[in-house]
Amino acid sequence: MERPDPGGVPLLEVRGVAKSFGAVAAVADVSFGLHPGEAHALVGENGAGKSTIVGILAGVHRPDAGTVALDGEPVAFSSPADAKAAGIAVIYQEPTLFGDLSVEENIVMGRHPRRGLGMIDRAAMRAEARALFERLGVRIDPARPARGLSIADQQIVEIAKALSADARVLIMDEPTAALSVVEVERLFSVVRALREEGAAIMFISHRFEEITELCQRVTIMRDGRHVSTDPIAGLTVDEMVRRMVGRDLDALFPKQDVTPGAVVLEVDGLTREGVFRDISFSVRAGEIVAFAGLVGAGRSEVVQAVFGVDERDAGTVTVRGKRLRPHSPRAAMSAGMALVPEDRRQQGLVMDLSLQRNVTLPRSGALSRFGFLFGPGERREVLRWTDRLRIKYGRLGDAVGTLSGGNQQKAVLAKWLAMAPAVLIVDEPTRGIDVGTKAEVHRLMSELAAEGVAVVMVSSDLPEVLGMADRILVMREGRLVAEIPRAEATEDSVMFAAMGQDAAA
């Protein structure tokens, strides 16, 4: 039975916790508790301190002040191993399994069952894995290699791994960001089963519909501080957003009305065998054109080929009347095209380099003198864009990997906007970032369109597509199947086209 406001001693509790990194106070005076049998949401904008709290509970960071209590008794974790031994497990958005080992070997890693002469008892290992999957109500072959598993299955394996180590607290950090609707529901079924067994779940997500469906209570953080902890049943999404951002969110989609200019980007007959075929479209100055469709429809692959990252078998790409050489990002950049990729960590940024160096990377030649970067000029360029994009950082010289996810996304945008592109391609511009930062990214996209930039957006967020696009191009199974103007676009019309169904039916 669900308890919206559980009583008694929390299973895990943070009391007045504070943590700073250099001059930056990541969290200050944060307190809340997780109770047995409860799914508890932790929400806040990127940079609110959620990841720091996770790091403290996982034994990665030690708090500068305050305490962590387990079953009412203060505990001090010196390492992640200490936290695991105490029964705390973290399930990250990107699982960390050993791909070349089997599923069962990943589950018992470091605790292999033994038989005579110290040999690994593989029969016992397999039996344990099967029992865990049966307990979770899922079907995964314990003997198969972990490599090749879907993200959803990898997360289930991580949960099984935690349960095999007798975890009583599961911290789930953005676990659904890369999952389909069916995979999300399966994951939620597993979480509900764990709740019924008495586990405490901390669920971190930017998706309010998931929070209200799964969780009983929610703790809201802002600027590293605790704002509130309340039962979900008594809160609306609007109220949660107001507490997160500290203000009313006037417009999540601040789209400006712009009269489109001349055609800037023209794509004709673009084909990559087995991936997409005969893709043709154009984008005018001041226009935002969105690609919509189901996962696997080929949207990201099309824009990667347009930019020259991926090869194409046929078709042409023309920018401002100049036909581009295929498979050449350098030619695309020279013609005035920029691409903000979906995977900002792997493709958009050099995580170990500073924020300053990442932002100026594409323009390092223009900012150099006699082969050396000119420091003051580089700094002025970076400050211009960090101010405009409202990037939150400690120092410009800090590694960009230390920034929050939303600020990393803004850093990728700053890197390309510094080039003053004529065409800006953004692939999943707001995936994994909080509602306040989403509004800022949307504001920026609208401003750029008003300044005459041709914007191409790929998004799986249907409200984002409807709220920001002047035209929507719908793809299905590698083909362009519909073009819907803004005035005629609805959720139904886009989804019917994406699924190949007749709207009248």
From TrEMBL:
ABC transporter domain boundaries: 12-248, 253-502
InterPro entries: AAA+_ATPase, ABC_carbohydrate_import_ATPase, ABC_transporter-like_ATP-bd, ABC_transporter-like_CS, P-loop_NTPase
One Pfam family named in its UniProt record: ABC_tran
GO MF terms, alphabetically ordered: ATP binding
Keywords associated with the record: ATP-binding, Cell membrane, Membrane, Nucleotide-binding, Repeat, Sugar transport, Translocase, Transport
Residues that span the membrane, as ranges: none
Keyword Repeat applies: yes
Name listed for the protein in its UniProt record: Sugar ABC transporter ATP-binding protein
